[in-house]
Amino acid sequence: xxxxxxxxxxxxxxxxxxxxxxxxxxxxxxxxxxxxxxxxxxxxxxxxxxxxxxxxxxxxxxxxxxxxxxxxxxxxxxxxx
Length: 81
Known about the structure:
Number of strands: 0
């Protein structure tokens, strides 16, 4: 979607979404570990849901704010051109 016209706003939120997806994948892998992993997985999913809702609200309101908690890390990990 963002290949023809490189929009900074769209690129920013795509990078934030990739970070949220990778965080969810990491939580899924942690959830394989019995008991302690399950607890971390359940708590992490609720935190991830909160981060996703806040990032979605920022995108809807056309704000280039990072997702709470890990959004700044996503900016540094997935730097664009």
